[in-house]
Amino acid sequence: MHKPYYIFITGGVLSGLGKGICTASIGKILQWRGFKVEPIKIDGYLNFDAGTLRPTEHGEVWVTYDGGEIDQDLGHYERFLDVKISKINNITSGQIYWQVIKNEREGKYLGKTVQLIPHVTDEIKRRIRQVAEKSKPDFVLVEIGGTVGDYENAIFIEAARQMRMEGEKCVFIHVSYVPIPKHLGEQKTKPTQHSVKMLRDLGIQPDFIICRSEKPLDDVRRKKIATFCDVKEENVISDPDVDFVYELPLVFEEQKLAEKILSHFNLKPPQTLAVKKRWEGLVGKIKSLDKKVKIAIVGKYFDIGNFVLADSYISVIEAVKHASWHNGVKPEIIWINSKDFEKDPSKVSVLDEVDGVIVPGGFGSSGVEGKVLAIKYCRENNKPFLGLCFGLQLAVVEFARNVCKLEGAHSTEIYPNTPYPVIDILPEQKDILEKSKYGATMRLGEYPAVLKKNTLVWKLYGKKEVVYERHRHRYEVNPEYHQTLQSHGLVFSGMSPDGRLVEFIELPNHRFFVATQAHPEFTSRFMKPNPLFDGLIKALSVPKP
Ligand code: GLN
What we know:
Blueprint: E1 5-11, H1 19-31, E2 37-43, H2 55-58, E3 62-63, E4 69-70, H3 73-81, E5 90-92, H4 93-105, H5 116-135, E6 139-144, H6 151-165, E7 169-177, H7 190-201, E8 208-213, H8 219-229, E9 236-240, H9 248-254, H10 257-264, H11 276-287, E10 292-299, E11 303-304, E12 307-308, H12 314-326, E13 330-337, H13 339-343, E14 356-359, H14 368-380, E15 385-388, H15 390-402, E16 410-411, E17 421-425, H16 430-434, E18 443-451, H17 456-460, E19 466-473, E20 475-477, H18 482-487, E21 491-495, E22 502-506, E23 513-516, H19 531-541
Parallel strand pairs: 1-6, 1-7, 2-5, 2-6, 7-8, 8-9, 10-13, 10-14, 14-15, 15-23, 16-17
Antiparallel strand pairs: 3-4, 11-12, 17-20, 18-19, 18-21, 21-22, 22-23
The structure holds glutamine (GLN).
């Protein structure tokens, strides 16, 4: 059996500390030294996967190449580490209990009483080791979601404790919060002390504590945390607010975190740090950018109470950033709730003030007509437009209604009795929906598209014949309307290999009007923007004809 080094990352004090970014950054600094790293995210919720979670509930649903609908943290891992991560790398309580109960029903426990320990912990350990066995990394990074003290994640922490007891080579990193209360104006370490105390109650003494705080940790607090939490002073790591998340690996580098982790295991790095240079260079370049581009994201999953939840579109936002930085511009993202256009269609002229428009993925009828109005505005006003999944479907609806003059054309997802169902359900999806089998049943994961020569999309993808992007949809451009749409000037720039599904569309004689049935945001990386986002940003810097 493959024996990697395990890095367990737990969280303390409060959620939303950026443990995922921490985990990705630790992976990065080890990767820079030539190690193969494999991250795992554990989620305590009972949902089997994130596929049925509303984006405003738990952030965006990340889609893996092999069709997993999983936690958005896996997206951070891919963007930082530039590796493809399988759906087996996301473990939820739902999956664990499902398997344990299935085993019990199949008589696999031979009449034993089935219990949290050992049966549930054994299943957790099996799942963690399965990832190690499959990809044979040097390091497995296991991020245990939630906060120490939650009922939900205690059993996972117990499984980690058992792995150490069973002789696995483990290091425990606790990511905690050090607040600076306004009325005191100084960093307070007590919440961290309490959280480590709770972790110890579960049998884990952390080897490192990473302290999230607005400001860098000062020496006085570092000493205090070291003393009270029984961690070496040099292993108390400062994680202050940074301008953008890709800086964090460099913040850890300054504190020699990788060397400290390696020395914990008595390891020497196999490689020099040459590859780090490009990352450092890009971070430096971003800091000096001043030319701005304004991109509107016209969506609907924005408001929860008074907060704007950018998490719902995190991969789209990151893809815009990657492409912008790559092209030497600073993106300013403007959030537009498409429902605003429905209340007052004249408001669509706010798009005048932005350089480009993105209509991202979505489900259901709310805000749809507002999105259609935005797309019409882009088409008629030569405004650069990128449509993603639902964005493609609504671009087709708009084109059918206003160019092909198919009045009332729609997607059957929104209006089942439309006279012109230009977007219709994939035939294989009909039965699935009738039986309400919603979980993990969309057209999911990576699929190939054959590109049409000499189209813009073909050029953007480096003139490749076949390209792969990730999908998550049940509806498609209805083949009965392919001919009508094309004869009115809509170009199908990429099709599924059997020629049945429209994967990419574009409009010639437009600055940039491109949409895809896929979600290209999932293949965008910090150092490697996705070609469609890159194309959009490049189009913005070409002066309007
Ligand atoms: N609701 C549409 C479908 O199911 C689009 C999905 C999406 O944007 N991911 O096909």
